[in-house]
Amino acid sequence: MLAYRHLFHAGNFADVFKHALLTRLLILLARKDKPFCYLDTHAGIGLYELSHPWAQKLAEYHDGIERVWGRGDVPPLLIPYLDAVRADNPDRRLRRYPGSPRIAQRLLRDADRMVLTELNLDDCKQLAALFAADPRVVVEHADGYQALKAHLPPRERRGLILVDSSFDRAQEFERLTQGLITAHRRFATGVYALWYPLMAPAVMHAFARGVVASGIRKVLELELSVFPESWSVSLRGSGMLVINPPFGFEKEASALLPWLWQALSSEGEGKWRVNWLIAE
After folding, report:
1. Which of 42, 120, 254, 275 gets the highest tally of CB atoms within 10 A of its CB?
2. Which of 40, 63, 112, 164 is catalytic?
């Protein structure tokens, strides 16, 4: 994990999927007056320069944020996400891509709080510098899964927890499942968003079985792929499990994902879906 740098992939189609959904979750949570805590367990550096040689090496943002950046038919549900991206590109030229902490920062209210953890020391230093002036934000050099134990339950008793691992180690799906189980025992009413890459069907089925066996309820499964299931050249798609989704989120996701799939899938390949993996 220490070797991973999201800068190689910043702004790709998986980021668009993840951050569009994250934005809707934050907006729905903010509809209630009571403050909440946003915990980002694998926070990265927060803001990515797309001109950086690492970003240019794969230039994955061309098939991600660039595909939706200038479109005139953007649905209203996507506008807050694009506004967050535009805020870091004030000249309307796509030069930077905000990570999940930066997007969340723009949607938090004064009374809300954000905890960001990052294990890579260099990335953590960049992250801390980016948010140094915001008193709502705490940045820690720590393992994301340990952060689930250290920061849950939050003092606000309301919270959104994003677990967005790099998946560059073996058995990451098992770690993700166990991390969810541990966190849910501490904070059963929290909203959890667990991002994951779509891999071989057998791997995905095993992951789903593990989550079902946990006994956790109210698990909404969202997926978006831009290549067919047989694709193995690169990432074909990604998914997100949302535990305890706020009221209205399922409806919003069902309206948003078809548009994103149409915008991000080059040849009309892949698919999208919104499905209750485990209902109440």
Report:
1. 42
2. 164
